[in-house]
Amino acid sequence: MFFLRHLNTLEALVILSIIVIIIAYLIWRYIKKFNNQQLEHYKVDDKKQVQQAMDLIVKSLRIPALVMSEEGSLVSFNDAFEKEISDNAKKYIKSKNYIVDFINDDVENRRLERDINGKSYYIDADVIDNDLFSGVILIYNDISEILDFSLKQENFIRDIKHEINTPITAIQGLSDLLVDNKIEDPQEQRKALKTIRNEAHRMSTLVKTLSDEIKNDTIMSEVSLDEVFNDLKLIYKDTDIHMRFSNFVEQPIITNENIIKQILINLIDNAIKFTANGRITVSALHLKETINITVVDTGQGMSEDQINHIFERFYKSDKSRSNADGFGLGLSIVKNLVSKIDGRIEVDSREAKGSTFSLIIPYNIEK
Known about the structure:
Shape: elongated
Structural class: alpha+beta
Strand content: 15-25%
Strand order of the largest sheet: 2-1-5-4-3
Order of helices and strands: HEEHHHEEEHHEHEEHEEHHHEE
Number of strands: 12
Distance between the termini: 120 Å
Largest sheet: 5 strands, antiparallel
Helix content: 40-55%
């Protein structure tokens, strides 16, 4: 400060003030720089903590999930994604346009449905945009079972409509003729009344079976096959085709009576439709640990290719279209009913030689 000695007091104060201001400015710049560095450091740490938290959450999920940054780079994914969606997440995200659409906000609905690796998924997106992270979290919800259940429900309703249409048509048509006195012959009237009774009995059995189907509850009880066969004889008493019922199982078995009846009604109806002339034989045998109930007809038979498809829903061969109206309840439903009583169904058939349907169920008796 030697040079200040040559200045008067006022000049010295002015110069000192300028020096203080400069020093204060330099100190302020240093503090600001230091604070910014600290803030950036804290901000980087916060970002890392946020990404670590997201990574922890995503990896803890049992359903497929991944996190993408705003730039489209992969941040995190879990084991479920790697197992169900893709074992190469980086390659997968580059090949899927819908992921880019989510990031660019080009999707109105934050949910998309996609078929991936033979399964159906709802892909839900949650967009994150703040100072710490910008990107999207994708959650893959497997809806295959839900869609399968919905399809089965629709098919089940369609099956019911398909089955009840025939007896309702018969009952309505014959009752109209009787009410309008258009059937005058007493024998024909009696025949019409028997048909109405038989169709009503069939519908009653069907309702009981469908009740078990809806409740998904197969109640097992002691069943006499003699009584089952007697009921079937009553139903098919007026059938033009020669029918024979033979039961060689004397002891009652444990099964579901309604399901057994419905299976046999369907198999017999099917045999009648494809046997213009001939006979149908229904028999029950006890073979070691099983009960074998067979429905044998001498009808038109089936080719090997037709046998491979008959349990498909509403399958009709070219021959069946020309000679018969459908398969009744549907052999696909029969197959489902058979599984409910822990049984199986087998088919042996040759063209122009007839068919044999064998219902095989466990031999369970009351102890």
